[in-house]
């Protein structure tokens, strides 16, 4: 199996897809999840950590160590997604157990990530980020040697827009020509810490190892009603996991738990974004990019080798662009601007479609 570390921001009410990224990363037979670090984002750090531990408890993976990372972005106030993900308690589900295992405190999240990835064989381990990029940016600033050591970095974040592919990106909130999901221009994870995102994308050696799964891709994959029914009624047994970590109390309710999370998420997406097919499951796609890269297509013209340079708007003074469909006065902070680069090795991999 491929060694992998997950950095995520599991939402307060859990009607958000980080829980599915955790499920996939910890249960897929071709992956070995070394640990999870949490970051501010969907909810304050304390909650993203608690929710991560609760999800692991529910799926019987107490053995996976969880570390609390950054509670704030590099140089901005944290932006929590209460408006989308709810603001109180566990509204999204009643089936989530209280975690038994606490978060690890013997070492910092950054050092834990570093040592897990560094002790994997060269070019073998992946880092997957499904929240704000603060922890990941600090990791590579403190440990630049890790760039050449890892196999890859997979990020769910950003949005390219502008006819990048056939995904429908206009939202009920922002008008049919907009493309962001947090502002008319910006995707939430990048918006949460644009400076951290910039520090990753502007590092050429790291960019060359990065796969970016933007909204343009996640909005092609929906948890439709039939997918949800399969999740609820499926009979496949989970892959074997360490016996010591199985909780017989929580195990039977895993399917209803994840189904309930999806129903809540589907409702929010229909209400806020007017998407009624089903919610896009953003985060697990960044995990899938690790073990099933062929699921994604890299471009019509150049097949599998199209690469991009990604710039992140960080200047608060950059305002709306006429014709972009945005609300006046929102600004473009967090917008990801992707430009195709010559050659097939430098730059970020951004798939254009899914197979
Ligand atoms: C991303 O923002 C978060 O709310 C989700 O968990 C996902 O990572 C989608 O923009
Ligand atoms: Ca997330």
In short:
The chain is α/β, with parallel strands linked by helices.
Describe this structure in words.
It comes from Viridothelium virens (Speckled blister lichen). One of its GO terms (cellular component) is cytosol. By secondary structure, the chain is an alpha/beta fold. It contains 13 helices and 10 strands. The chain has a 6-stranded parallel beta sheet with strand order 3-2-1-4-5-6, sandwiched between helices. A two-stranded antiparallel ribbon has the order 7-10. Helix 2 links the parallel strand 2 and strand 3. It is globular and about 50 Å long. The site of calcium ion has 8 residues, from loops.
> Level of helix content?
25-40%
* SS class: alpha/beta
Bound molecules: beta-D-ribofuranose, calcium ion
Shape: globular
Number of strands: 10
Provide the residue-averaged pLDDT.
86
Cα separation of the termini: 23 Å
Q: Please tell me how large the radius of gyration is.
A: 19 Å
Uncertain segments are 322-326
Helical stretch count? 13
Main pleated-sheet profile: 6 strands, parallel
Biggest sheet: strands side by side, in what order? Answer: 3-2-1-4-5-6
Strand content: 5-15%
Order of helices and strands: EHEHEHHEHHEHHHEHHHHEEEE
Organism: Viridothelium virens
Protein name: Inosine/uridine-preferring nucleoside hydrolase
GO molecular function: purine nucleosidase activity
Family: Belongs to the IUNH family.
Notable traits:
single chain, 355 residues, alpha/beta, 6-stranded parallel beta sheet, binds beta-D-ribofuranose
Topology:
Layout (H helix, E strand, L loop, with lengths): L1 E7 L9 H10 L3 E8 L6 H14 L7 E3 L13 H4 L23 H10 L7 E4 L4 H9 L3 H4 L2 E5 L31 H5 L1 H8 L2 H4 L2 E4 L1 H4 L6 H9 L20 H20 L8 H10 L4 E2 L10 E5 L23 E5 L12 E2 L1
Parallel strand pairs: 1-2, 1-4, 2-3, 4-5, 5-6
Antiparallel strand pairs: 7-10, 8-9
Helix pairs in contact: 1-13, 4-5, 5-8, 11-12
This protein binds beta-D-ribofuranose and calcium ion.
Organism: Viridothelium virens (Speckled blister lichen)
Family: Belongs to the IUNH family.
Protein name: Inosine/uridine-preferring nucleoside hydrolase
